[in-house]
Amino acid sequence: MNEILEIVFGVIILFGALLSVLSAIGVLRLPDVYTRNHAASKSATLGVLSILLGAFLYFWVEEGYMNARLLLGIVFVFLTSPVAGHLISRAAYNSKVPLWDKSVQDDLKMKNQDEKAKAR
Amino acid sequence: MALQLLLNVFIAFTWMFLGNSYDFGSFFGGYLIGLLLIFTLRRYFSTRFYILNVWAVIKLMLIFIRELVLSNYAIFKVIIKPKLDIKPGIFALPTELKKDWEITVLANLITLTPGTLVVDISDDRKILYIHAMDISDVDEAIDSIKNSFEKAIMEVSR
């Protein structure tokens, strides 16, 4: 029974590692800050989450040791990484990092123009 | 909601004092009895029976996890595809949510949705500016998802 569980936890951890590799590839491959941010803020989150979950389950079943810090870590990563992604892309936009040439639509530009018109 | 929860804990403690036994079992029994009492007296509270709120929060958490997995699959497809044929863009989404925490939760949910990332929120907190990975086919589908998210969040704060 324990061997099967070990394999399951191994698969969870490997899945997390695979997702982390994938998000690294995404950061290299995608064209601009914003699309890279998509890859970094999503795949990396789930990758780290599943690695932590795998470690938590392994120590729980194998050693009978329930480490609540890993659970807290899961919750914290889950809550903070989308906020970090939002803040990075917002900072990039406000410091006028251009979007990719093939981007189709930019509603935010209109908002900033409106604000400038109001300021005058 | 918080008032009802506090009252329920208070009833549980009263139950423990009545039975003169101080362990988790009697706290739990008292809590269940308090739940029943609050359910019978639910007409006298200004808000609804609070278990419904708890249930809505649990549903919201499940939505969070489902969207996280789905969005990873969507990103996976884009990254693995040999040809890069995405059409990114920023679009505006008007929201009806009022309180700050509701907008925060909505923004977090949108960021974890397949192919969308919140870039900015307008100063009057009525419009969210969202960067979409692929704007052509996602636009309408996303609007419908947003409606379901917004509904789920409103359900919590009702």
In short:
The complex is a heterodimer of chains A (120) and B (158). With 120 residues, chain A is mostly helical. Chain A contains 4 helices and no strands.
Keywords:
heterodimer; A: 120 residues; mainly alpha; 4 helices; B: 158 residues; three-stranded antiparallel sheet
> What is the residue-averaged pLDDT of chain A?
82
How far apart are the first and last residues' alpha carbons of chain A, in Å? Answer: 72 Å
Largest sheet of chain A: none
Q: Calculate Rg of chain A over CA atoms.
A: 20 Å
Question: In one word, what is the shape of chain A?
Answer: elongated
Low-confidence region ranges of chain A: none
Reported for the largest beta sheet of chain B, the result is: 3 strands, antiparallel
Q: Which structural class is indicated by helix and strand composition of chain A? A: mainly alpha
Quaternary organization: heterodimer
Return the average pLDDT of chain B rounded to an integer.
83
Distance between the termini of chain B: 10 Å
Helix content of chain A: over 70%
User: Helix-strand pattern of chain A, N to C?
Assistant: HHHH
Q: What is the strand content of chain A?
A: under 5%
Residue runs with pLDDT of under 50 for 5 or more positions of chain B: none
Shape assignment of chain B: elongated
Assess the beta-strand content of chain B as a share of residues. Answer: 5-15%
Number of helices of chain B: 5
User: Quick one: how many beta strands of chain B?
Assistant: 3
The count of helical stretches of chain A stands at: 4
